[in-house]
Each structure stands twice: as structure tokens, then as C-alpha cells.
Design goal:
334 residues, alpha/beta, Rossmann fold, Dihydrodipicolinate Reductase, domain 2, nine-stranded mixed beta sheet, six-stranded parallel beta sheet, 17 strands
Length: 334
């Protein structure tokens, strides 16, 4: 049987990256599958508070070991990388502990719930032998890339209007603000980050937040934020959860000097005075591609298409949106 601990890759051997996954939820499932399909990644343990749940996860993904102490996992010598898929409030402290032990870290966004926390994690990464990677997977989607390519054709930008409205009951830990964070840094963050990736920095933020809470649980909420873009134009983003069925799904409209982009679900329409084009972007396995980015960062020091600093800036804007909603006024970005 071939020894898979090293992979012959053209002119040199590359050692397999042995990973531990903290968490057993939807993203952990996706990460485990992507790692299993990558020649250089191998998950050797999974960490769960429930040993029974951890064992079910391990059996499903052919993982040999289950642990219940994530801090112990961050110290073990058998792994060189840690994948963090836990509730948002745990991200920063797990990242800090893993980096302190010189582990490579892949963490789902957000890196932290606050700008200060994200800066602390990035500073820790600069002092660590481990690499820090934040999974901004939405930037890899076919839809995101298609719109990024089309935007320059619109000329001067007028506005972007984006609405995401769920008619489902808020589930799991997403109804707990202490674990999830406010709606801007949690649910709305990747829409904010998409805009920044497309159009650059933000000049000002004006936001509103409404929610219904019962026994410390969020029954429904809606976060609305208007962003003044440094390159011109404005964006208006709405993210609503827990509203009546069937909800409204996702819809985005972009108004430009020379035409329009309309995104509805998986379909993108590009409209100009001369033509109307419907585009169905090729499907992309964002998680698998992001895992390849992580592996390339570790093995080849290949620069990723996005960095923890990108996530930091989006967290900063989300934090200003939350402040604007609390104070009821527009906030200038400094």
C-alpha cells in the first residue's frame, strides 16, 4: 500500500497536513468532506462537547479519533492544522489558543465579533509559526465572480439594493445573540464583505435594527444598513430572519450608468439599452475551493485571494452598522 503521509508533487515531496476539526455542525460536515477529497489534507480527529455526537460525525467521515476538549486538541502534536466551525463567539479564543501552539488555523467567518477581537487574532498570527486563514467562501461563488466581472461595464454606480428574508424559524445557536453576535456581524457580514470586494472602501454607515426577543432568544430580527461607497454610489442591505412563511428569499439589484444587474437566487440578469442577457453561473463548491486555498497557503506559501485583514475590515463596517443602529445616527468611517 502506498504511504500517503507524503505526496509526490512534480519536483518535491509535500507532507500531508493533518487536521483537527472543532465542531460537528453543517460547516464541519462540509469541511470534513472537502478535506477527504483533497490529496494533502487529512482529518485525524474531531472535537465535540458530546462524545456521542462526535462519534457519529467521525463514523460518517472515516475519522479515527474523537475528543471533547478543544484546548487539548490545540496542543496535540499529531495535528498541524485546526479547523474551527463553532458558534461565532468562540472563534477568537480558539484561534488564539491554536496560534499560540503554532498551529495553522482555518476559521469560518467572522474571525471575531468585534474589530478589536479580530485585530488581536491577526496580531497573534503575526507572532505564530502557524498560518491564519478565514473562510470568506462567498467570494468564491460563481455568482460573486460573475457580478465582479460585470460591474465595470455599468460605468458610474448609482445604487445596490440587496434583500435576504427568511420565512423559517431561527434555529440552533443562531437565535442566541451572545453566541452569534448581532445581525450585522453574523448574518449580514458576507453581504457587506461582497460589496467591499466588488467596490472598495466605505465612507459612512447608517443602519437600523429591529428584533423580537423572548427569554433571551431572538424570535425574529431585521438589520438594515445603508453604506456610502468611497468610489461612488450607495448600497442598501437588508437581512431579515424569522419572518412569516414563505419569506422572500434573496434578491439583489444594481443600478449603473449604462445598465443594470439583477440577481435572483442562482440567476443573474444583465440589462442594458441594447441587450438583455440571462446568466446562470457555473456551480462552484466554495468549501472545497477554500480548503484548497488553505492547503496552498500552508504548503507553498501561495498568497490567498482574501486575507484575515479583509475580514477585519468587514467586521469593522459591521460594528459601525451596529453602533449606528443603537445610536440612531449616521457614522463616518475613519
Amino acid at each position: 500500500m502506498t504511504d500517503r503521509s507524503t505526496i509526490d508533487n512534480k519536483d518535491h515531496n509535500r507532507t500531508k497536513i493533518k487536521l483537527g476539526i472543532i465542531g460537528t455542525g453543517r460547516m464541519a460536515q462540509a469541511r470534513a468532506k472537502a478535506a477527504a477529497d483533497h490529496e494533502l489534507l487529512e482529518v485525524v480527529w474531531v472535537c465535540s462537547r458530546s462524545r456521542e455526537r462526535g462519534q457519529e460525525f467521525a463514523d460518517s467521515h472515516n475519522i479515527n479519533k474523537v475528543i471533547t476538549d478543544w484546548e487539548q486538541g490545540c496542543q496535540t502534536e499529531e495535528t498541524s492544522g485546526i479547523v474551527i466551525t463553532t458558534p461565532n463567539s468562540l472563534h477568537k479564543k480558539m484561534v488564539l489558543r491554536a496560534l499560540k501552539n503554532d498551529k495553522h488555523v482555518l476559521v469560518e467567518y467572522p474571525l471575531a465579533l468585534t474589530e478589536k477581537g479580530a485585530r488581536e487574532a491577526i496580531t497573534a498570527a503575526q507572532k505564530s509559526a502557524g498560518q491564519l486563514h478565514v473562510g470568506l467562501t462567498h467570494r468564491l461563488s460563481g455568482g460573486h465572480r460573475t457580478i465582479k466581472k460585470l460591474l465595470p461595464e455599468l460605468g458610474e454606480l448609482g445604487s445596490i439594493i440587496s434583500i435576504q428574508c427568511s420565512g423559517r424559524q431561527i434555529s440552533r445557536w443562531y437565535d442566541d445573540q451572545k453566541r452569534m453576535g448581532n445581525v450585522f456581524v453574523a448574518s449580514n457580514l458576507h453581504y457587506i464583505d461582497q460589496l467591499i470586494d466588488w467596490l472598495g472602501e466605505v465612507k459612512w454607515v447608517n443602519a437600523d435594527l429591529r428584533k423580537k426577543v423572548e427569554k433571551d432568544r431572538i424570535l425574529r430580527d431585521i438589520g438594515s444598513v445603508m453604506l456610502g461607497l468611497a468610489g461612488g454610489g450607495t448600497a442598501y442591505l437588508v437581512y431579515a430572519r424569522g419572518w412569516p412563511r414563505p419569506g422572500l428569499g434573496f434578491d439583489r439589484k444594481i443600478i449603473g450608468e449604462k445598465g443594470y444587474i439583477v440577481e435572483k437566487g442562482e440567476e443573474i440578469r444583465y440589462l442594458t439599452p441594447d441587450k438583455e442577457e440571462t446568466i446562470n453561473p457555473d456551480p462552484v463548491d466554495n468549501i472545497a475551493e477554500d480548503c484548497r486555498v488553505f492547503a496552498d497557503l500552508i504548503t507553498d506559501q501561495k498568497a490567498p485571494p482574501y486575507t484575515p485583514e479583509d475580514d477585519l475590515y468587514s467586521i469593522k463596517i459591521a460594528g459601525l452598522a451596529y453602533r449606528s443602529a443603537r445610536e440612531g445616527k449616521r457614522i463616518e468611517v475613519k
